[in-house]
Amino acid sequence: MQIYLIKNIQIVNEGTIHAADVLISNGRIDKIGQNLDVAGKACTEINGEGLHLLPGVIDDQVHFREPGLTHKATIYTEAKAAVAGGVTSFMEMPNTVPPAFTLELLEQKYAIAAQNSLANYSFYIGTSNENAEEALRANEHRQSICGIKIFMGSSTGNLLVDNPLTLEKVFSESELLIATHCEDERIIRENLARLKQEGRELTAADHPIIRNEEACFESSFYAIQLAKKYNTRLHILHISTEKELQLFGNMLPLKEKRITAEVCVHHLHFTANDYEQLGNRIKCNPAIKAAHNRDALWTALLDDRLDVIATDHAPHTWEEKMEPYEKAHAGLPLVQHSLPLMLYYVKQGKITLEKVVEKMSHAVADCYQIQNRGYIREGYQADLVIADLNTGQTIEKENILYKCGWSPLEGFHMPSSITHTFVNGQLVYGNGVWDESQKGQRLSFNR
Questions:
Q1: What are the tens digits of pLDDT across the range 62-87?
Q2: What class, spelled out in words, does domain 57-368 have in CATH?
Q3: Where are the domains of the chain?
């Protein structure tokens, strides 16, 4: 494997920024220090002056649509888009076709990724009202499966889990992290029925009224009650409301928390005011809501009630998004642009670069107990990203790598850019040039 020496770069890691050299060999971070050399060995040297080195982003929630929905996306296309945006590892959801409800189906997804993913990968096993026993078999593989996913709100097919007995069983017996989508289905249906009685055509602006703050809060509160009852390791995905934030604390270090929370970039960026311009393009579950929720999410992210930043990357074709509101598919493609978007907020003074690295890399590794990733440390896997904070790019169809070919951020100018992405020491992406000769690795967990 090739040796790389990154010279005189600003390293952003564990709350500090400092200039140093980084030597990469055998897929790992070999040395970090001043005036490093390779003692006559052949290596590729990269001049890091004026640039920043970050640990690769770990996205704990994506939908890459394979198998069964490959007209929208594939593991190859979306992992490539992820790498271009500085995401070196992802954890993918079970709502494919067929859903990943068994260990055998889950291993089929791992096999696809081993052949095709340029980024490192892990996959959640899914739950239904009928497969609790099978999902719990994942306990035997807790060092090689990221977690169990429960949709405690509507989803496709039979992924909705609303049987209390099933929920009690999974929460009481799981030895893995349980990741939940929390929206109360009863409240959603009642809100929808009430709006339909008005006799008008519904639009995307109705989405946060149907999937309102109460639906999110009641479901998150229920999940937390179950987790506290059984001391379950619970991670609630895509928090979107101010009201839910009272359920989370910042008194314990992340590694000691049993209940953690994720926020997604679109809930930090868009508000309900954007439906007028973007319509179904920003229709997602849970919904993007009124601006006071976004403001509260930022506060909670910065004071550590919210633990990690992710995307919930969920690509659909343009045709699927342009259907009338009730038929339009919910979800946004975001994984190529999550880190650049957060670097935009660094430039805006909303968040520090050190905090972005904490929430997109360090904290995800700690939350999931990922082995030897998420930090710039000697001996760790060399999942690294070089960012140019002063050279930007406008998001246009020509530079979007998602298979679906569109982004809700089209036309937005990112003031910073990703110049290089290393995955396991391999320079997969460098200044627009790709090396796809090696694929990513299956994530391992210290459990």
A1: 999 999 999 999 999 999 999 999 99
A2: alpha beta
A3: 57-368
